[in-house]
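Hi R.,

Here's the chain you asked about this morning:
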Amino acid sequence: MASSAIPFIFPAVHLNREWFGDGSMRQVAPVSPAIHLGAQKILVIGAGRLADENARPTGTTYPSLAQIAGHALSSIFLDSMSVDLERMCRINNTLSLIPDAARRDSGMSLRPIEVLTIAPSQRLDHLAARHAHALPWPVRALLRGIGAMNPNGGALTSYLLFEQSYTRALIDLGYADTLALRGEVLDFLELS
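And here is the predicted structure, written out as tokens:
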């Protein structure tokens, strides 16, 4: 429960003597712990379209509270992963330019990390908007009041929607996206 706690939406969880929320609220380098623990390969299952250039809302009207909240949640949960993956790719590229012997002789502890990222091929805010009708009516009324039920407010809805129709659509999308990368997944897992 602590992993899904977003304190201004879902309450923090008390464990032992401390309160815990989702780690991505503070973890600015989410891939870093795996690397520090010695990982040589990292499989990233994305919860949103990483580095989606079309994710920015357009228009001349001031964004609704729902758009602002959705943007803030995406900043918490997606941006740090995107930046961390970009940083790791740049380090891998830099390391590829340094001969192995020179890297060993220099005492550098940096090593290339193999990464495979599976991210949704569709925008989850659009998918959530198609399933928002499944929310209980009081929640729909609240979300309508802050602009989350209009086409531009789907990002917030995607973080709040745990209804079966939406979660089933997410599972189906994840399955299809993984199958589309079947060869890469098998190679990464050394099963081919």
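One quick note: DSSP finds eight helices and four strands in the chain.

Cheers,
M.
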